Amino acid sequence: MSASSAGPILELRDVSLSFKGVKALNALSFAVARGEICALIGPNGAGKSSLLNIINGVYRADEGEVVFDGAPFRRIRPLEAARRGIGRTFQHNALFKRLSVIDNVLAGLTRHSRTTLVEHAFGLPRDLAESRALRARAEDIIEHLELTPHRGTVVSTLPYGVQKRVDLARALVGRPSLLLLDEPMAGMNQDEKRQMSRFVTEANAVLGATVVLIEHDIGVVMDLSHHVVVLDYGRKVGDGTPRQVRNDPDVIAAYLGTVH
Ligand SMILES: Nc1ncnc2c1ncn2[C@@H]1O[C@H](COP(=O)(O)OP(=O)(O)OP(=O)(O)O)[C@@H](O)[C@H]1O
Questions:
Q1: CATH number of domain containing 10
Q2: Most exposed among 9, 15, 92, 239, judged by the fewest C-beta atoms under 10 Å?
Q3: From the CB of 46, is ligand 1 less than 6 Å away?
Q4: Which residues, 6+ apart, have CB-to-CB distance to 38 below 8 Å?
Q5: Mean pLDDT, rounded, for 116-122
């Protein structure tokens, strides 16, 4: 075991971020253990998406640092974060809506390929063997996420729940060690949520990704996660197992209301 693999995969140390005087994150500290599913919960505007944006380099922390795999940073470029093994989905998925499922999943492999997106679009792979290997990887993940019937379908024509799964496939195809999911179940019915929960569990247990996810459905959070961090106005108001957090009076007061 290397030195970095002994500690938590992710640590936030006193991270603060403001937008024109509004403190989105206020001296936030917590750690995510390797191999866990960690849920970030809290009311709208609590700072959850901003935090994911700092971890994968979309935003830069004003203060504090992020330690990923033992290496601290305050700012990292999104491509560099992806290269180091941080995968990401977005609240409103950022898929290429006019492209097929397979092409969207292949786009998630750009960081692994010496072939550029333009070369890929024109069918000009630099290295045929590389291209075949990456395509096989994309086909595997499509099968794994039960997207095979949709593999050639243009994304914009798919139901929203299936699009969210394509977004997950695109994030997973790069084999991230840390997978950041921003409301992967937003807008889904109970059946779709159950299905997505199964895929997130498999990404964690079978594919080995540590998961940090933002989710508003407390039932889903309690069933799915090993660890829950609660944010309110950019501050941490709870941190523990789902059961600990559920029974924490501060969390109940700030967010959960009366728990039966
Ligand atoms: N790019 C931005 N420019 C200005 N203010 C921002 C920006 N991003 C976030 N904020 C502000 O930072 C605060 C935290 O927002 P953030 O989106 O991180 O919260 P959240 O917990 O993810 O909310 P939600 O559950 O509604 O997605 C809010 O006050 C928000 O208005």
A1: 3.40.50.300
A2: 92
A3: yes
A4: 32, 210, 211, 212, 213, 225, 226, 227, 228, 229
A5: 60
